[in-house]
Amino acid sequence: MLHWQAGTTKRILDACLAAFAVIAAVAVLYMAGAVTVLDRFLWETRFGLDHRPVSGNIVLVDIDARSLDELGVWPLPRRLFADLTDRLAAEGAQDIVFDVDFSSASNPEDDALLADAIERAGNVSLAVFRQPASSAGTAGEIVNRPLDRFLDAAWPVVVMVPVESDSRVWRNLYGYPIDGSPEISAAALLGGHTGKATGAFGLDYGIAIDRMQRVSLVDVLGGTVTPDSFRGKKVIIGASAQELRDVFPVPVHGFLPGSVIQALGAESIAQGRAMVVDGEAIAVLTALAIFFVLLMTRMEGWLVKVLILMLTACAFEIVAFGVQTSAPILVATASGHFVLLFAAASIVIRELGFLKFLSYLATVSRRNSERMLGLVFDESFDAIVVLGGDGRITAASRAARSLFASEALVGMMAETVLPKDLVEETLAVLDARQDRKPVPKVLIVPLESGKRQVIEYVVTRSEKTIVRANRRQDVKTQSLACLTCRDVTEERESAERLEYLARFDPITGLLNRSGFEQELQRQTRTAGRMGESLCLIQFAIANLDQIIASLGFSYGDTLRQAVASRLKSHLAQEAVWSAISVDVFAGVFVCGPDGDEGLQMIEALRDVICEDYTIDGARISVQLKFGYQLADGQTPPDILLKNSGNALARARRDLQVSVVAFRQELEDALERRRTLETELFKAIVRDELRMEYQPLVNLADRSVFGAEALLRWNHRQLGPISPAEFIPIAEENGYIVDLGAWAMNRAMKEALTWSNPLKLSINISAIQISRGNLVTTVAEALERTGFPAQRLDLEITESLFIDESLDLKSCMEELKALGCSFSLDDFGTGYSSLGYIPKYPFSKIKLDRSFVRRSIEAKQDVAVIEAVLHLARGFGMSVVVEGIETPDQAAKLLELGCPCGQGYLFGRPMGSAEFSSQLLKAA
């Protein structure tokens, strides 16, 4: 009995000691990272066996290689993203997320278009991310945030993904603190996450993300996508083209673009598959328990015990796979497997003996190593060829047989199947008396097709020991040369293509803006050393948009190519030319300090470029606008570009001028314009805007029947700002829609306080119709204030009829249905057409002040006024003459039969309280 107890106690102690040794070994592997490596391998295997469909609620708009090839430029112009946003919003996309960097400014026009499109859509989110600071001497990270003008109407979302120790992406973020404030990630936003915007979650790579709906960017822009593809869907816009390098190594799929990883994260959250790691302790304890039981049992035979441990390992994976498919849990079984592995080794060693076991392991290891090395050699990504001292090929990998187009390389002389240069280099290494450091080299092989093949290679030398069995056990060494090479033709061509696109415009072949800036910097340095002056000219094809609208984009590209061809043929010797945007070209050349060469060059450009073009049978004429600046070699290139661009912008805005030279006053005016544009957005909040009213009177009895509402801005520092200055700014940036709505509500509210129920006239801008919803704005203002629609008179200028894209007639008919009336304002200022009057529901004509500035004695003025009065009577309309300042003018107009008037004679524009007081005095 005592003997049995002693044996049992010893068995338990041995089992505990063995278990402790196994635990210690597993702990060492855990600290070395081997456990994590095995766990990730097992998780990836389980993901590969699990096939889950995507929800179908997410669509990826892909900036793929075809899009870059067809669009031909990177970065893509912001106007393309604006068009894309409008199209997606029109298709009914639920959410729009851009995985695109908008942290730097593009040209102002494109940025404004994109900002307006984002505001119109109302459901756009833009990428925010942190990245290592790349500038020399700078440490830490920088935050890339979209421009503030974009974030005014969009949500920031984090698009970073954490990369694990194996350089792959296993997790995504719920959010990340940016500048101290937590921002939700794109995946969490699209997946409907409602918790805190912090922490990370595991991605479910069992979801078949490769079956997610993906649409090429050019197909969306071209309108070839199936209707309703985006309706009610969440859309991610991102890049998958390899040259853009926005791809990450991931499990299962190898590599995925960042936008697809965000989509996978959204699918994981939406399907309740945000993975967490668990179960490691249970696996370890279970493995230890089984090991302990096997040590305690009296069962003989190590094979049976090892088989039990193997079955336990299989059971671990079956259970882990079942848990993973039914719940978002990644079971960490690697520690348990290592426990089982060391347990099996312990059992075998205990029963076979340590030395015998080591010999067995060495034999198995050698065989496995030989087999593995053979597989590695044959399946190597690189082509590997081994040559003996006689120049004969002794071994060749599968990639080598494919690269050199021969399945029978082994045993052949290298000079008969390999390029001559490769053979000479390899034999030179073999003949070298001493080992030399391998140097990678590149070989360019011309092909029969006229193309080329680029091979990157390196030659290394080694020795093989040969043992010959004889009496003296003869040992001999043999030299071998290993040629390792790969075909890098596509990589070189892609790199050259990207290098070309980085400096040249792919359509015109001229320098692009980046390449031109480099050339401009070089010429500036040269001019500074030589004491010379430079002239930078920018010219724009002012009517390119109309040409594209009428003939198509292909004609626009062909026209740009033709313009570039003429620049290269006729003016390339005199200046360096560039296509810095779609419709703007630029040139720089050395000139004298007086600048005469600049004007001479502009005349030469007119002679060469303005001559008509014939494209596919269509005769095309171009209209050019010029801006230029003369400068010495001390002016920075970016300032030179900016100033000449500002001069061009001024020329494009002025219909009477085609050439503008930069002057400091122009910069001052632009600076004031930028200041006013910024301040105008704050004017309503600061209560700097007010309404003034000018009376409309009956000339016969001087009674007031209405008032024209006029918007005024009194800035707290700059003082009163003229409407002629801030209204055009508001129209250009679209803010006139908000200003118009504010003015309409304020004018109606104040008009209701007057003692008399007067007509209220309010001016309408074309932008309120094209970018806003004028009918809704008017209807809401009438409902909010309670102002009678019959007293509202909307003044429409003749200039609105020039833009044929405006559906002005239907808009006016809807407003007329509400009860509003209309006046044709500024009649006679240059756009008048009798065809407008019967076509639109006008009830009044306002004759411009230019006809009454004198004493109305000129026969021409009298004839015009009488004609307008006769015309108005024929159509049952009334006439109001603007600009009446003297009693003689009023009397003459009344004599001619004009019933109504407006001008300083009856009252200057005044505030509501003063206007109301005047009405009380008149009563």
Protein described:
- This protein has 923 residues and is α/β, with parallel strands linked by helices.
- The chain folds into 5 domains: 2-49 and 278-352; 58-272, no CATH class; 379-493, Beta-Lactamase (2-Layer Sandwich); 504-662, Alpha-Beta Plaits, CATH 3.30.70; 675-922, Alpha-Beta Barrel (TIM Barrel), CATH 3.20.20.450.
- 46% of the residues lie in helices and 22% in strands.
- An 8-stranded mixed beta barrel has the order 28-29-31-32-33-34-35-36, surrounded by 5 helices. Strands 1, 2, 3, 4, 5, 10 and 11 form a 7-stranded mixed β-sheet that branches.
- A hairpin with a 2-residue loop joins strand 24 (613-615) and strand 25.
- It is elongated, with a radius of gyration of 40 Å.
- The N and C termini lie far apart (130 Å).
- InterPro entries: Biofilm_reg_signaling, CHASE2, EAL_dom, EAL_sf, GGDEF_dom, Nucleotide_cyclase, PAS, PAS-like_dom_sf.
- Residues 652-679 form a coiled coil.
Please give a handful of descriptors for the protein shown.
single chain, 22% strand, coiled coil, 5 domains, seven-stranded mixed β-sheet, PAS-like_dom_sf, 923 residues, Beta-Lactamase
Short description:
This protein has 923 residues and is of the alpha/beta class. It contains 32 helices and 36 strands. It holds the Pfam family CHASE2.
Which helices and strands occur, and which strands form pairs?
Blueprint: H1 2-32, H2 34-49, E1 58-63, H3 65-71, H4 78-90, E2 95-98, H5 108-121, E3 124-132, E4 141-144, H6 148-151, E5 155-158, E6 171-173, E7 175-178, E8 181-184, H7 186-191, E9 200-202, E10 213-216, H8 217-222, E11 234-239, E12 247-250, E13 254-257, H9 258-270, E14 276-278, H10 280-296, H11 302-326, E15 329-331, H12 334-352, H13 354-379, E16 383-387, E17 393-396, H14 398-403, H15 414-417, H16 420-431, E18 441-446, E19 452-468, E20 474-487, H17 489-503, H18 513-530, E21 533-541, H19 544-551, H20 553-570, E22 576-579, E23 584-591, H21 596-609, E24 613-615, E25 618-620, E26 624-632, H22 637-653, E27 659-661, H23 664-680, E28 689-698, E29 704-715, E30 719-721, H24 723-733, H25 736-751, E31 759-764, H26 766-770, H27 774-785, E32 792-797, H28 808-818, E33 821-827, H29 836-839, E34 844-847, H30 859-874, E35 878-881, H31 887-896, E36 900-901, H32 912-922
Parallel strand pairs: 1-10, 1-11, 2-3, 2-11, 3-5, 14-15, 26-27, 29-31, 31-32, 32-33, 33-34, 34-35, 35-36
Antiparallel strand pairs: 3-4, 6-9, 7-8, 12-13, 16-17, 16-20, 18-19, 19-20, 21-23, 21-26, 22-23, 24-25, 28-29, 28-36, 29-30
Helix pairs in contact: 1-10, 1-12, 4-5, 10-11, 10-12, 11-12, 19-20, 23-24, 25-27, 27-28
